[in-house]
């Protein structure tokens, strides 16, 4: 089946590859010519008015630069075409073929317009496909970016929740320590009051030396009994306190809070950078 240029699919693809190469070189050379004009604007057109001689000098300089660029491109294009013909002739010679060229067809307007239409249709459709492909990739990247942003937001929220939970546990532990400290303080105050009462009793007994000596042994016994009773009371108080639901609950809560703190610190270590 013949293609639009009268060539089979393989040869037409070879033509397309060459046209793609030529279009790339042409685009680069046009950018070079554009830069010549841009450089002129930035370097020479810095005054408000110019004389005829100055304008002539500017245009002559621009003409020289553009002429050189165009001539260089035309020469390079000619050499490139020669290399392309050399490839064709070398392949033909391997099969003992003698190829001929018709130079007159290179200026055939109908054929040139046919090539132009072929280039326009081929590369316009290719550009549309490329644009569609780029648009599809762009949508995929947008979707992926949204997913990453959502994951990052969730991670930050989770970290914030863990930090708040850790603060709550630390505050709760502080309250529990305060309650235990308060109980110890009350017990110490009780012992201090008992000591004060004993000292007061001892001072009152000094009114009479004889009574003091008589009551000293009794007082010592009473003191020992009082100490025994105090120790017994302390043990009893500790025993009763340990048997209360509040103590068991407090102990259980403290154990759970310690476990939660360990778990929270373990989770937080995943979100914090290593030292």
Explain the layout of strands and helices.
Elements: H1 9-43, H2 52-94, H3 109-204, H4 209-243, H5 245-271
List keywords for this structure.
mainly alpha, single chain, 275 residues
Give a nutshell description of this structure.
The protein is mostly helical and 275 residues long.
The SSE string, one letter per element, is: HHHHH
Helix content: over 70%
Strand elements, count: 0
Number of helices: 5
- Averaged pLDDT: 81
Beta-strand content: under 5%
- Classify the secondary structure makeup into a structural class: mainly alpha
Distance between the amino and carboxyl termini:
70 Å
Q: What characterizes the major β-sheet?
A: none
Give the overall shape: rod-shaped
**Uncertain runs:** none
Radius of gyration: 51 Å
Give your account of this protein's structure:
The protein has helices at residues 9-43, 52-94, 109-204, 209-243, 245-271. With 275 residues, the protein is mainly α. The chain starts with 8 loop residues before the first helix and ends with a helix. GO terms for molecular function: identical protein binding; protein-containing complex binding. It is found in: Cytoplasm. Keywords: Coiled coil, Cytoplasm.
